[in-house]
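Entry 12.
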Amino acid sequence: MKKVLLLLFCAAIGGLTLFLLLSHRGQEEVDLPSRADLALEEVQYVETEGGRTKWELRAKRVEHWIKGEVTEAYDLKVVFFLEDGRVVKVRAQRGGLKQGDFIELEGRVVLETEDGYLLRTESLRYEDRERVVRTEAPVQIEGRGMVLKGVGLEVRLRERSFLIPKEVEATIEVG
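Predicted 3D structure (tokens):
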């Protein structure tokens, strides 16, 4: 499921980047406070395919730098509508994407699944070449009578495995 979520997030940011690039054509040049090449505020972007909503992004601000092929979104919320009908929500203070390289989420990152699982951390980074999600920040995973805490997280999507390398603490409700 994490593989699907990351692929959906990549698609969301990639689609938004394409939208930003295409919407900029023919417009006059404006000075942007952040020196980004493109910027939008109060963004709502919905990706559909065959009449079905795949994902929806809401962000207070989105910026794109053409030269470095980097896109950043601020105060973002992404809702993924999976093919099996489940819904997954992700929110963070900032998200960044370098096309084909990495995706970063920073600042109160929360991933919530419809079936009751919740992941909280301060940062997550997806490395496309390795197909790995990592953080060195504290993490907390909650769901179905279980709380798992630790420092650091490495999710290997190809192997379908994850590791919390330090200070692991688990609480499991019995009965």
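Annotation: The helical segments are 2-24. DSSP finds one helix and ten strands in the chain.
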